[in-house]
Design brief:
535 residues; four-stranded antiparallel beta sheet; 17 helices; 14% strand; disordered N terminus; PABS; transmembrane; SAM-dependent_MTases_sf; MFS_trans_sf
């Protein structure tokens, strides 16, 4: 319940200082802090995820986005000191602005990235950081204004200590809930664009609540109501059209017919088709092209499998597309293949979609293969029984573009691999391009050697990727195999020696082992591949 406040007169409270209300109003004002905190964190996470999706997983980009956002929030908090009158009206306007700018941020960035030329990263980065800073400043204004409104509205109940305690409790709780929900629920089920519009509507909902609560004391109530209605309608329209917008943006970005697009808790999965064949993209990064993936997977698997002689137990780490497993299952001696892939959506797609199972020959449903959807690092650490030893271990992870992937290229991880490798077995690691990322390639070799493994590096030409590298690791020297499985399209016994010859521009360079505590490989990789994308 509220009672009327007379117009502003000398000595009277400001118009936005609402009278005493029932405690439900107080609770809902505090609940709005929870919503504000949740929305603010979503916009920050969305910007970071989009930089990862659209520009590649870059630790530098994600860190600078968080830093810029937090700094902008600090600027917003400082600017709040200059807002003294009509606090509710100003708060209402800020909520609508945050809802519009933050809610449309993912959609705007998708559209901009799809519309700009591939080489024109500078304009996109300017837009990205401009939006991040703008949203950060607006979010930084919110909490100080809420605290001041609460202080004026319930000044009899709140001292400064209680006020700060109450507001920050709801603020941090909102951040906690979203931090958990964003990767587990929001992105997998709504996608980034829908998530943005949805939380923009929540910000607009806070504005509508303030409009109703202070309806008898706000000046220009009708104008505020029209503004709220316009923002809500805009964001609802965006939410309804999010799927079409995503489709349009991805169609422009990939330039091919998109057969499948899904968002998991870990990545955006897109499968495209053209006259040249089928391509798989994870977070916008090409993983294989059907016209030449056989070159990559034959080179990855057969030098280790054939040299072992008669492998019975094989472990595949990564490789959720089932292509490496397809090559492994060509050996009659194989009795058991364990495939450890973090993303269950990947293995489900490549086990059930006819177009994709045709590429991997149904390997993921072969009775000899067991799929484990866990983090490879944790799985290896947990499985230290004597029977958890393998004749061949195939390590087919994405490149170390961030620390989450970089940990899978460290001495700590390779020590675990060593513990699971049979005395006469071989492990093989896909190891980026020794031509483009030369130091990164030899860093992986140095890391494997640091845990006591013997390394045998080699490379192969895969047209979709260029010159690509691999490293065999074992407890004994590698010797060329006496035979290869029939029906291979790329590898031959006579052609194998050429793969192990490194010309001067790919020859070994000094490199330090990659350790979990420092992960220097991530920085080296980013620097080397970043030079390739510079105009």
């Amino acid at each position: 319940m509220t009672v009327s406040v007379p117009p502003d007169v000398p000595g009277a409270p400001a118009r936005d200082e609402a009278p005493s209300t029932v405690s439900a109003a107080e609770v809902l004002l505090l609940a709005s802090v929870f919503v504000i905190a949740a929305c603010g964190l979503v916009y920050e996470l969305s910007a970071g995820a989009l930089a990862s999706y659209l520009l590649g997983d870059s630790v530098l980009q994600f860190s600078t986005i968080i830093g810029a956002y937090l700094a902008a929030m600090g600027v917003g908090s400082w600017l709040s000191r200059f807002i003294d009158r009509q606090l509710v009206a100003q708060f209402l306007r800020i909520e609508l602005l945050v809802g519009v700018v933050g809610g449309t941020l993912p959609a705007a960035l998708f559209i901009a990235h799809s519309s700009l030329p591939v080489a024109a990263q500078a304009p996109f980065l300017v837009l990205l950081y401009a939006l991040v800073v703008l949203v950060g400043v607006l979010v930084g204004l919110e909490i100080p204004l809420v605290m001041r409104i609460l202080k004026r509205h319930f000044q009899a109940r709140y001292g400064l200590k209680d006020l700060v305690s109450q507001v920050l409790t709801f603020d941090y709780l909102g951040a906690l809930v979203v931090a958990l929900a964003f990767p587990l629920l929001l992105v997998p089920h709504l996608g980034l664009i829908r998530t943005g519009f949805f939380f923009g509507l929540l910000n607009a909902g806070v504005a509508v609540w303030a409009l109703w609560l202070f309806r008898r004391s706000l000046r220009h109530w009708r104008a505020h109501a029209l503004a709220c209605a316009a923002v809500v309608v805009t964001l609802l329209a965006g939410l309804a059209g999010a799927e079409r917008l995503t489709t349009w943006a991805e169609d422009r970005f990939y330039g091919e017919t998109i057969l499948l697009r899904e968002t998991s808790a870990y990545q955006r999965v897109v499968v495209t088709r053209s006259r040249a064949g089928i391509r798989l993209f994870l977070n916008g990064n090409l993983q294989f092209h059907s016209r030449d993936e056989y070159r990559y997977h034959e080179a990855l698997v057969h030098p280790a499998m054939a040299a072992q002689g008669a492998p019975r137990k094989v472990l595949v780490l990564g490789g959720g597309d089932g292509m490496a497993a397809r090559e492994i299952l060509k050996y009659p001696s194989v009795q058991q293949v364990t495939l450890v892939e973090l993303d269950p959506q990947m293995t489900r797609l490549f086990a059930t979609q006819p177009l994709l199972t045709a590429l991997n020959h149904g390997s993921l449903t072969d009775p000899r293969l067991k799929v484990v959807n866990e983090d490879a690092f944790g799985w290896l650490a947990a499985h230290d029984r004597p029977e958890d030893v393998y004749d061949v271990i195939v390590i087919d992870f994405p490149d170390p573009t961030n620390f989450a992937l970089g940990k899978l290229y460290t001495t700590t991880f390779y020590t675990l691999v060593d513990q699971h490798l049979a005395a006469d077995g071989y492990a093989v690691v896909q190891t980026t391009s020794p031509l483009v990322a030369r130091k990164s390639f030899w860093t992986v070799a140095a890391t494997l050697e640091a845990v006591g493994l013997t390394t045998t590096p080699y490379h192969a030409d895969v047209p979709s990727f260029g010159e690509w590298g691999f490293i065999l690791a074992s407890h004994r020297p590698w010797h060329p195999p006496a035979a290869l499985p029939p029906g291979l399209r790329f590898l031959t016994l006579s052609g194998l020696p050429a793969l192990f010859d490194f010309p001067p521009d790919m020859a070994r360079v000094p490199a330090e082992p990659n350790r979990l505590s420092t992960q220097g490989l991530v920085h080296t990789f980013e620097e080397e591949w970043g030079q390739v994308h510079q105009p």
